[in-house]
Fold this sequence. Notes:
Layout: H1 22-25, H2 32-48, H3 53-69, H4 85-97
Helix pairs in contact: 3-4
Amino acid sequence: MFEESDDNLCPLGCKEEETKLHHLRCTKQPGATCIARDLADIKKWMNKTNTAPAIKIALMSGIQTWMETEEDWELTHKRHSTIEEAVEEAAEEQARIGWHELF
């Protein structure tokens, strides 16, 4: 199915480095649309269950930043300024653990 290669790039041709978690972010892998749909479903579920806005912001910002960059989102990125103290602590702890651990 794939040709052998001497480099460490994704065999599906997205031109990104193949890391142990790359398959979760790769836009060329067959499940990419499922992952995008699942993230949209998480957001809908949080809206439906009246999840606190600060929790939604922290969770979705963390996941989206990791999916886009494979870097852990931290509050130093300050996309939003309304994160409550407890959620701020949880987001910092998740960044310490790693956002990829959600998967």
